[in-house]
Amino acid sequence: AGDAVAVMCLLRARDGTAVMAPMGAMATVSFAPMGAVREEGGRTLASRAVMASATCAVPSLGLTDATPARFEIVPGAPARVTTRLDRSTIPAGERATATCAVLDAEGNTVTGSSPTLGLAPMGEGARVTGLSVQIERAGMYTVSCTLPGAQSEGAELTVRPGLPARLQIARFDDA
Question: Residues near 87 by Cβ (< 8 Å), separated by ≥ 6?
């Protein structure tokens, strides 16, 4: 996805030999499914990761290719990593687990990548293990899946104070 798609339309005689198009006959190309390609700067670019087809036609001659060219558009290089948390608020000391989605520049899902998890601010009482975080101090944090060369979109995590860890009782004189 993101690369140029080049299509060449050839007119052929019944015996299969290539023939020149008559003066003024213009070939057109249509792609399926809709949205598989996009036009940009006079070029046709692969957009959506799908099995696609290109069909040539010469409307002025009433000709349409009965056997469209089929091709596969695969995702491009990772460009963006999004982060989603199983919950946006946790009590101090508990865990939140992230799900990372890796996308190419066209928004197609890229498989086979292994993002890592980061936490900001990172400090004492905060641990990242695999795709989960455990934080012991209340506050606001940003959890981000990261992948070299890709833009990262983090998710906000609120850590609220947990129950008191200790209760101390003392007697005071009334006067």
Answer: 96
